[in-house]
Design goal:
InterPro entries: Ribosomal_uL3, Ribosomal_uL3_bac/org-type, Transl_B-barrel_sf. The chain is built from 2 helices and 12 strands, in the order E-E-E-E-H-E-E-E-E-H-E-E-E-E. By secondary structure, the protein is mainly β.
């Protein structure tokens, strides 16, 4: 069973041994169409722009204007209407998928953790990558060479333990951190 969630932020428990936790808010979703026995198309409110293409899909499934985002989720025995959230009260471990924070174009020190050179005495080697190839064979840069480039903004999936679930406010508390910025939309899937 998959669910759409929004990352609220991080906090910690107030026990004797304080544990870092991440708070996720479950988003209300409506099951619009059941594709097969394991997949379904769902709609949810994202609060972003509204256009004619979205309006056409909303008319097709007779949805209100607040449901302006659509996704395909793995659901078992899905029926049209609101998605059932009662299963989460018994969940122990979930898989969380979010887009990581985008950091733009970064050098090798930040992207791959290279050491860099000495800072003084005219070394002329501070934050540069250094030599990237062999002069004789193969005479080209090998694939997978660690160089500067775009960092972050990729989908990351992590396993987290469920600490608690507030069914009234639809807030899921997970042990540890979750990738992405506060307010990011992602998915969770129940493992146990």
């Amino acid at each position: 069973m998959e669910y759409i969630v929004e990352k609220i932020g991080m906090s910690r428990t107030i026990d004797t041994s304080s544990t870092p936790v991440t708070l996720l808010r479950l988003i209300n979703t409506k099951i619009c169409e059941v594709c097969d026995e394991k997949k379904a198309i769902v709609a949810y409110a994202d609060g972003k722009a509204y256009n004619k293409a979205i309006a056409g899909i909303q008319k097709k499934y007779s949805l209100s204007k607040e449901f302006n985002k659509f996704a395909t989720l793995s659901l078992e025995n899905a029926e049209l209407g609101d998605q059932n959230l009662d299963v989460l009260s018994e969940a122990k471990i979930v898989k969380v998928s979010f887009r990581s924070k985008g950091k733009g174009y970064q050098g090798v020190i930040k992207r791959h953790g290279f050491a860099g050179g000495p800072a003084a005495h005219g070394s002329r080697f501070h934050r540069r990558p250094g030599s990237i190839g062999n002069c004789e064979w193969p005479g080209r840069v090998q694939p997978g060479m660690r160089m500067a480039g775009h960092t972050g903004n990729e989908t990351i999936t992590a396993k987290n333990e469920v600490v608690s679930f507030d069914a009234e406010n639809k807030i899921l508390v997970l042990k540890g951190s979750v990738p992405g910025f506060n307010g990011a939309m992602g998915r969770i899937r129940i493992v146990k």
